[in-house]
Structure prediction request, 271 residues.
Amino acid sequence: RGRRRLRPAHPAAARLHRRAHRRLPRAAPRRDSRSPFAARKPMATKPMKTADEAALKPLGMGHPKEQRHPVVAILKGNMTPWLLISSIYTIYFLCSLGVPRIYWDSATMGFHIPMAFLFVLGCIWNLFHTPSHGPNFRTAHVWCGWLTNLIGFASILSGYAYVLTGQSLLPLGTKVLMLSIGAIQMALQILGLWYMRGRRWVQMHMSMMTYLFYNSGVLIAINWFPKMLTGQPLSGAAGTNWTFVSMLMGVGIANVAVKYNRRNMDLQGDF
Prediction:
């Protein structure tokens, strides 16, 4: 400050000198300004591939949910508390009460139990992994869906044959429940296929398949809960009342699962 600035003698040069040394308040740069001094967005750079990504890419694991170790990718699915509890309980029901009947019941039941077991496993897999998880899971979902539908129709026909030919010793109310569930299962399977292949309506396809698992698999397991607990099925009015209570419980769990999947499932992927 103690030194005197030298100013040029020419008036035009003096004006330029004053403008260059004029102190102006600094303003925040605007992003929409065309000035070369305005703030600019950083240039987009292509991220470097890690060693794991480079190793997984040749295997077809290019989707973000598949760019992990294959075991981790399989375990990272659409897991919910009701899907976990319902799956474990239904599989336990089939193993404890279903599988032993293969050896001492009729041949019709011996065919129906494996079909029902495979049907439940196919439903669990396709609800746990959807096509939005990547191309590999999409292929598995499609093939598993077709196979599960064929197995489902086989389980329906064998179940109807077991009840209508007089081989079943269940109470009348339970027989009506089983026949009704078989009709509902057939309708849900046909609607699920039509919404996907005919209408390409992914949300309704997901809803039909979710109802299919909880109404055709979990509901029957809930109905047999008294026998799993005490070893003896309910009879008389208690058995009839429990039949309708178990039906309401199965429908309620299915509605909760459908609403959750509509909010949280990615239904905009490549289906």
Q: What stands out?
A: Residues 11 and 43 are 44 Å apart (CA to CA). Confidence is low (pLDDT under 50) at residues 51-62. The chain is about 65% helix and 0% strand. The first helix runs from residue 11 to 21.
